[in-house]
Amino acid sequence: MVNRRQFIGLSAKTSLALGIGMYGLSSCAQENGKSAQSGGIPYTQRPLPYGYSDLDPAIDAMTMEIHYTKHAAGYASKLGEATKAEGVDIATTSLEQLLTNVGKYTEKMRNNAGGHFNHEMFWQTLQKPGSGNDSGKIGTAVNESFGSMDELKNKFNEAAKTRFGSGWAWLMVNKDKKLEVISTPNQDNPLMDIAEQRGYPVMGLDVWEHAYYLHYQNKRADYINAFWDIINWNQVNANYETALKSDLLAGL
Ligand code: MN3
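Structure tokens for the assembled complex are given below, as produced in the milestone run.
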């Protein structure tokens, strides 16, 4: 969710251009049944909590616009087709629950349920560079699990750099409730029953070329380093608290 300060930071013009308003931002998560009640991610795309150019220079405006309106919108719409065709009752099944059973469904469901969830988590964990962060529980948990923020950064960057081809790097809570860094191929994520290493994701970095190629070309490492300037730790902390409370965690 967008906090009040971030919301006010958007100009009225930008808000209009993006088709968002205070009501839309605060209500969207409550209209999707179970998913929202558990702090989960809705089946439809939420408005971006910032303008396309706000993440510049870490992520340029054209990349953001194409990524959100074309790539991510495509996953959301194909997820809608797949849930309809395969009889998933989205009013009673959260997206997170669906992901934990995704092996029962088609490849189309796997790719698009993953693609939609991953991007919706990704957008919310980004913010304008220099926005500042409160240190929540996640700060303590990072120190307990990795020793320091620098060590988390090393592990995460390594996972993101070495993921061959397209995929994601993740910070996740494992079933022992410890933080762990992993990566997944394509649009998979660690909630999925078919994932090699499982856990509840709290922060992901998209390392598909569509996420960085316009600005960084082949320099994936530069994109990964720049990501650390735009992390919304308040949101990562909120995701961490959601993960710890989730009924799904013990079964992963
Ligand atoms: Mn992407």
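Residues 1-37 have pLDDT under 50 and may be disordered. Residues 67, 71, 119, 206, 208, 210-211 surround manganese (III) ion (CB under 6 Å). Further analysis is deferred to the final report.
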